[in-house]
Specification:
- The chain is built from nine helices and six strands; from the N terminus they run E-H-H-H-H-H-E-H-E-H-E-H-E-E-H.
- The protein is an alpha/beta fold.
- The chain has a six-stranded parallel β-sheet.
- The radius of gyration is 17 Å and the shape is globular.
- The structure holds 1,6-di-O-phosphono-alpha-D-glucopyranose and magnesium ion.
- Magnesium ion binds next to loops.
- Pfam families: Hydrolase (PF00702).
- It catalyses: beta-D-glucose 1-phosphate = beta-D-glucose 6-phosphate.
- This is Beta-phosphoglucomutase.
Length: 214
């Protein structure tokens, strides 16, 4: 039986991907190169450090570990300038409604995000109290596709992995849920999110009926 839903943040609850993209692009430009929106897809769900390494690789740029840390901080400062302007209207269609529906029928809810800025984002959009547990980039050491973030979510909620359904927009996230022995609803396109039990375009397409049929 399904007892809990675990939600990814970026791409599922809010579209912070566009802010990540703008900030990374600004950083790449400051280093004298650029990257495409297509390349940007590879950064979704991936940790900050790993994203920077991928981008530096695309630009053929080598940096010391200390320089990398400085660059990651610079990107995060630019990113947070945009996050700090976020409003509750930026919650993706159906997200708040589906969270409310889950809670109304007694399902537990958790956030399972790679982002170290999750709490700030939840506060900006005003939905912090809709989660029984928040597991983010500050609480885990192994990035998706490792299942650590989702397993920690199940543990915090006091449920078994097989009693959880994960909602994910990134390939790495779908893989993490599958590796954690959880059911997974992909948010996006079924061509991309192959391992998911069900793929929908957004949480506005999700219902309890679909959930219990997984
Ligand atoms: C998000 C984004 C990634 C980002 C990562 C780390 O993950 O999809 O692009 O690199 O978090 O974010 P931060 O730099 O804020 O710690 P998720 O797991 O919510 O999709
Ligand atoms: Mg995501």
């Amino acid at each position: 039986t399904i007892k809990a839903c675990i939600f990814d943040l970026d791409g599922v609850i809010v579209d912070t991907a566009v802010y990540h993209y703008k900030a990374w692009k600004r950083l790449a430009n400051s280093l004298g190169f650029d990257f495409t929106e297509h390349q940007n897809e590879q950064l979704k769900g991936v940790s900050r450090v790993r994203s920077l390494q991928l981008i530096l690789g695309w630009g053929g740029v080598t940096k010391t570990e200390a320089e990398q840390e400085q660059l990651a901080t610079q990107k995060n400062n630019w990113y947070m300038e945009m996050v700090n302007q976020m409003k509750p209207e930026e919650i993706l269609p159906g997200a708040k409604e589906f969270l409310t529906t889950c809670r109304a029928v007694g399902l537990k809810t958790a956030l399972g995000s790679a982002s170290k800025n999750s709490m700030t984002i939840l506060e900006k959009i005003g939905i912090t109290d809709m989660f029984d547990a928040v597991i983010d980039g500050n609480k885990v050491s192994k990035a998706k596709p490792d299942p650590e973030v989702f397993l920690a979510g199940a543990q915090a909620l006091g449920v078994l992995p097989e009693e959880c359904v994960v909602f994910e927009d990134a390939i790495a996230g779908v893989e993490a849920a599958v590796a954690g022995d959880m059911k997974v609803v992909g948010i996006g396109s079924s061509d991309v999110l192959k391992g998911a039990n069900l793929v929908i375009r957004g949480l506005d397409e999700m219902t309890l009926d679909k959930l219990y049929k997984l």
